[in-house]
Amino acid sequence: MMQPEQVEKIIAAGLSCEHLQVAGDGHHFEALIVSAEFAGKNRVQRQQRVNEVLRQHFNSGELHALSMKTQTPEEWSAARG
Prior knowledge:
alpha+beta
């Protein structure tokens, strides 16, 4: 069973993030991922990029479910006020 910290480390190793937060219970996870790599990409393309980083963990069954919110640094800054 994976822990949120493990998921966070995997994402951070494969994607340049300005902010990254992962929470979960070992089976289902939620992530807030802020990356300049998301600029010019739609929501589906952003999620595909994150799934690409995590693919081997999904394929092995080690990681089951990840709900994610993906933002550019500008979107994240605007959302925070």
